[in-house]
Design a protein that fits this description.
- α10 packs across α13 and α22 packs antiparallel against α23.
- By secondary structure, the chain is α/β, with parallel strands linked by helices.
- About 35% of the residues lie in helices and about 20% in strands.
- The strands form 6 sheets. Strands 26, 27, 29, 30, 31, 32, 33, 34, 35, 36 and 37 form an 11-stranded antiparallel beta sheet that branches. Strands 15-14-13-16-21-18-22-20 form an 8-stranded mixed beta sheet, with helices on both faces. A 7-stranded parallel beta sheet has the order 3-2-1-4-5-6-7, sandwiched between helices.
- The termini are far apart.
- The protein has 28 helices and 37 strands.
- The longest helix is centred in the C-terminal third of the chain and has 22 residues.
- β8, α8 and β9 form a beta-alpha-beta unit.
């Protein structure tokens, strides 16, 4: 290829400026960044001239100062020597991108190591910068960021990326000059590198229109790469579009010069999910004042805060939370506008070129004055979370608990671990010291004499806490790897003061489970949920709340010392949130049952219970809200103690227990609270208040035998469960057995035994056993539709579907009978049921049935009208032919 041809395929070499510092950047110019950095250096730095270089397939489309066709760059034996001479003779500094060789050698081999040697020999100062996939090793990156969707790519391509990245990582490690990365996400692959921020022409994206100023906001997403996880984003935004919540625009095939107007016309830009950092598109959207949503990991936020003093104003979302996050932004225009303004301020400070020029000048001119106002945080950013672990003789389990902290995806650098050895006599202290020696300053170990209560080590931990949040981990328990990342991310995103995840048992440990059925809940209502049954301290607490309240553990409590702490925090929290399907805390029951929960005696137990009740009374004024929170102390704590210990105690201890229950009931057991308790629990407390040991024990056994049925007895229009001690003639004790607040659907359904169905003359007759006694109000129902509910239901009025049929409950014999005129049955599927009034509700109960039986009549039972059979739920349906 001759020189004349070369001139047709490349830009002419520019005239060399007389500046004392001359910088050459290339040859990738990824996302135009080399060109932007060169402009920033030339515009801002005194006596500095910088140009960018790029070789590519379409050089006329590549925004750079010097461009060349990639085939010419690779194969021309004339071009490469000319470029080498130009660079070596003209520039004092060279920034090489992505470990790409600027030129080839005599054999047309592109070896950056050889280029580096030539530049070094010529006295040129060289630095290297990584952009992304050039050093991101897929197998490693996938582990650090599990939501990165490399599986969406061709496996051969992923293998190629793996090979290239591993080679480049090795070359960066061997390079003895300055190294930079365009995202903090890449620092683990290029240790010791500095973050060189992405740079853009901020004015090109400026927009005066505030976000969310129209009835239906516009949300956009540009699926430019698999790592953005558009496969998760598209369906969610399309569903919200279809619901009318927003207008979703998927940006594809839009010329770059048209993109500013497209972004200005949007309100929210969803950049990516799972990548961990953010890219040029996010910067452009923030420059336009748009709200940006993406998965920026807490470790990345901390790094940027540390080196710039600025918080990243990108709203965090994950695969699980994207729909909720977008809904909340749309519903809160004021917050969204604030975020948009913060984005403009952030981009102008970090991404307009001044800060990037400062970063490059740490290599080019280390003694030069800063060009931007960006400075590192005056003090290291406070940890995202302080984890406090109280340790006493748990050496068997402690390594597993500590290992779960090491695996936290939020990163140990985002945590402060305060490990308090409360006078252990086993190897626990040594294990803690060795752990701290491995992990440095963010691990604090405190050794103290045994206190006899976890409250003391918890308080010592709070005294040393510096994190934005605090979390308490049992020294024999473990966390899911992503637990703290999820908790902190949701606390930040939801602006919650208390957040907790799912709890699951290790072994036979009893843990609450009903509350988790709701999944992820941003606003938990302490007074209308099962939160009072979830008062352990295994939650994330905002430390500002803890310190503002002066909140500490009661050191006079050996047992349940976490409940007053947790209750006070939740009563005063702006928001309580739950991740019921994740952030799992695995709680262990020790085989020796050696913790204070199991070793406290009756005096201690009831003293602790009294303190908890007094805390509730101090925090919540009398009324339904206090009753809702207080109820757990009667139907869970006191009932639980009676269940576990009453049979084992002597008469003196029993008298003490009954005295304490009587005192607490007089102070806190209101009529409203009493009526809201489940019948069996109310009956147990009532028997204990009567000091009736025999009935109390019988009721406790009935409570354990939950699978056994119980009669329902209706007296004076009021329904009662006839548990042990029930006497229909005793008007004084009957209220304890009355069905009031609870809706015992399963128990009501179990009142009616398995049905038999036959054709008797001209009628279908259905019979079975019944456990209904007294004088009930009831009706037979027949629904002419197989889609009718196949499980028992309840409502405030009698069932309206279908028609009434003849029904009879023989409350003396304990049987039921339904009769249906066969002549009224068409060829359909029918579902018979019994409607029973219980208190203020009507229960519609389908009847249990087994198998399939023909409905026949006449001489030799030859005439059939169909079959009686069980549906998939095991309930009777009549299939009339």
């Amino acid at each position: 290829m001759d020189v004349s041809t070369i001139r047709d395929l490349v830009d002419p070499f520019p005239d060399v400026h007389a500046a004392s510092t001359r910088v050459f950047l290339g040859p990738a110019n990824s996302a135009g960044q080399a060109g932007q950095w060169a402009k920033a250096l030339g515009r801002l730095a005194d006596d500095t001239w910088a140009i960018s270089y790029r070789y590519c397939v379409t050089p006329h489309l590549a925004p750079a100062h010097l461009r060349v066709d990639s085939n010419l760059a690779r194969y021309s034996i004339d071009w490469n020597p000319r470029l080498r001479d130009f660079v070596v003779e003209s520039f004092t500094h060279v920034l090489i991108e992505s470990n790409h060789a600027l030129w080839s050698g005599p054999d047309l081999d592109f070896d950056n190591r050889a280029v580096l040697e030539e530049l070094k020999a010529a006295g040129v100062s060289v630095a290297m910068v990584a952009h992304g996939s050039d050093v991101k090793i897929p197998s490693v990156y996938r582990h650090l960021h599990p939501d990165t969707q490399y599986e969406q790519l061709d496996p051969d391509l992923v293998d190629t990326l793996e090979t290239i990245a591993r080679r480049n990582v090795e070359d960066f490690a061997a390079f003895d000059g300055p190294t930079f990365v365009t995202s903090p996400v890449l620092i683990p692959f290029v240790p010791g590198s500095r973050w060189l921020p992405l740079t853009l022409d901020v004015e090109r994206w400026t927009c005066d229109r505030p976000v969310l100023g129209r009835e239906r906001p516009v949300v956009v997403h540009s699926p430019s790469s698999a790592q953005k996880n558009s496969v998760w984003i598209d369906p969610v935004l399309q569903e919200l579009h279809d619901e009318g919540v927003l207008e979703y625009r998927r940006l594809q095939g839009i010329p770059h010069d048209e993109m500013p107007d497209v972004i200005r016309d949007a309100d929210i830009v969803v950049e990516q999910l799972g990548a961990g950092g953010y890219g040029v598109a996010a910067c452009e959207a923030m420059a336009a004042g748009r709200v940006v949503v993406g998965t920026v990991d807490p470790t990345i936020r901390r790094h940027i805060k540390a080196v710039t003093g600025h918080d990243v104003p990108i709203v965090r979302a994950t695969r699980e939370t994207i729909a909720e996050v977008v809904r909340e932004l749309v519903a809160d225009p004021e917050r969204s506008r604030r975020l948009g303004a913060e984005g403009v301020e952030y981009v102008n400070a970090i991404h307009d070129g001044r800060y990037a020029a400062d970063v490059l000048r740490t290599w080019i001119d280390p003694e030069g004055e800063p060009l931007s106002d960006v400075r590192p945080a005056e003090t290291p950013p406070e940890p995202d979370c302080t984890v406090i672990v109280a340790v006493h003789n748990t050496a068997t389990y402690l390594p597993e608990a500590l290992a779960s902290l090491e695996r936290q995806t939020i990163g140990l650098d985002a945590l402060q671990l305060v490990l308090v050895d409360d006078g252990s006599t086993d190897d626990s202290g040594r294990i803690l010291d060795e752990f701290a020696a491995r992990h440095g300053d963010n691990v604090v170990v405190i050794h103290q004499p045994p206190s006899g209560t976890p409250a003391v080590p918890f308080n010592r931990g709070l005294e040393r806490a510096t994190g934005r949040y605090v979390f308490f981990l049992g020294s024999d328990d473990v966390l899911d790897d992503d637990a703290l990342e999820l908790l902190v991310g949701h606390a930040d995103g939801w602006e919650s003061d208390v957040v907790f995840g799912r709890m699951e048992p290790i072994g036979e440990r009893a843990v609450p489970i009903l509350i988790y059925r709701a999944g992820r809940v941003r606003d938990m209502d302490l007074y209308a949920s099962r939160l009072p049954y979830n008062l352990s301290n295994t939650k994330l607490f905002r430390r500002e709340l803890v310190e503002r309240l002066g909140l500490r553990y009661r050191e006079d409590m050996r047992q349940r010392c976490d409940q007053p702490f947790t209750l006070t925090a939740m009563v005063n929290a702006r928001r309580i949130s739950m991740i019921g399907d994740g952030a799992t805390y695995h709680a262990r029951e020790r085989h020796d049952r050696s913790n204070v929960t199991y070793t406290a005696d009756a005096v201690e137990k009831y003293a602790s219970t009294e303190i908890v009740m007094e805390t509730i009374a101090d925090c919540i004024p009398p009324g339904p809200q206090r009753d809702h929170v207080m109820k757990r102390q009667f139907d869970n704590t006191i009932r639980g103690d009676l269940r576990d210990s009453l049979a084992l105690r002597d008469d003196v201890e029993r008298a003490f227990v009954f005295d304490r229950i009587e005192d607490l009931a007089q102070r806190y057991l209101t009529d409203n609270l009493f009526r809201r308790m489940h019948v069996i629990h109310r009956a147990i407390i009532a028997a204990a208040l009567r000091r009736d040991v025999e009935t109390t024990l019988a009721l406790l056994q009935a409570d354990e035998d939950k699978g056994r049925g119980v009669d329902l007895h209706v007296v004076d229009g009021r329904a009662h469960f006839a548990y042990p001690g029930f006497d229909p003639a005793d008007a004084e004790s009957r209220p304890a057995y009355e069905i009031t607040y609870e809706k015992p659907v399963k128990r009501i359904a179990s009142l009616f035994g398995r049905a038999k169905a036959l054709l008797d003359g001209g009628s279908v007759v259905i019979t079975g056993r019944s456990r209904v006694r007294g004088a009930p109000t009831y009706a037979g129902r027949l629904v002419r539709d197989s889609s009718a509910p196949s499980e028992a239901t309840h409502a405030k009025r009698p069932p309206q579907r279908g028609r009434e049929i003849d029904a009879h409950l023989d409350t003396e014999a304990g049987t039921y009978r339904l009769t249906i005129d066969a002549g009224t049955l068409a060829e359909r599927v029918y579902r018979p049921s019994i409607a029973l009034q219980v208190g203020d509700l009507w229960y519609d109960v389908p009847l249990r049935f087994e198998g399939e039986h023909p409905l026949r009549t006449g001489l030799l039972r030859r005439r059939s009208i169909g079959v009686a059979r069980a549906d998939d739920a095991g309930h009777l349906v009549l299939d009339v032919e």
